[in-house]
Amino acid sequence: MIFTLDAMGGDFAPQAIVQGALDAVGNSSESLTLILLGDETAIKQELGSETPSSIKVIHTDEIVTMEDIGSKVLKTKPNSSLVRGINMVKDGEADGFISAGHTGAIMSASLLTLGRIPGVRRPALAAYFPTEGRGKVLCDVGANPDAKPEHLVQFALMASHYYHHVEGFSEPKFGLVNIGSEPNKGSELYVETYKLLSDMPNFVGNIEGRNLLTSNADVLICDGFVGNTLLKFAESWINFFTDEIRDKIEEKVSYKLGAGLMKPVFDTLRSKYDYEEHGGTPLLGVNGVSVVCHGSSSHKSIMNSIFVAQKCVKNRLIEDTQKSLAIHFGN
Hints:
Isopropylmalate Dehydrogenase, 15% strand, globular
């Protein structure tokens, strides 16, 4: 498989992207070629003197920054690492694209360049949450702040295929994030969506906020406004709680001694709930593999994002999503 990487995207580019690529090549069990796009001098400086034959470098002289308007980068920065990498997927020169850069630009460029999977009305962005057991997928987390009931139904199908093909669990159950469990709860959008989803066999009903991580739903469906709010709250709460524990430990010598004894437990939990252990997620509904990574991704997250892209291609995520949409919507 061949993948293009936006070597200039992310808080720790190009170092994290280059090291993640090296780690992926070294740990992949399958044939893997990675094309790093960006400032050739900076990339080769990170690669060092011995570059594996499976890693290629293509120079681009433009960089998409957070100050750029995502919807306009195709026109304003056509020779950027982000745009060139996606174009190579469109032209059949690569099987997929990975970036930790400007999320809005990745989404816009991927949609306009690769197009939608036939039948898809709105692409969506999902996020994986590690939990006790198989974990949860939340969709949408920001691509569609304004959505219609039929969009949320498609999100359920696309996210379920992602959960199956990438996470490896078949027949996932999905629920609708809502303020109550009753069918008539929530806004008109959620009441109407519930009616449409109730005809689908794996739908388990409404899921209240307090039950998001413990419900029997593997996939949690909502509009992008709700999903993005939940996602950012979760990130901020984890950071806040971690800082609080760290500050308390520093207060007393006895706390420090206790923390030393608990270190194996903390290490296990940190590993289990670390998003970098999972990597990025594919942009759902786009007719090509485009993996969006967290902006602060380290080399470990980049490596795991490359493996996510491998699973998308190997397990035919795009093709099977198209078939499912055709069955349910007659496209």
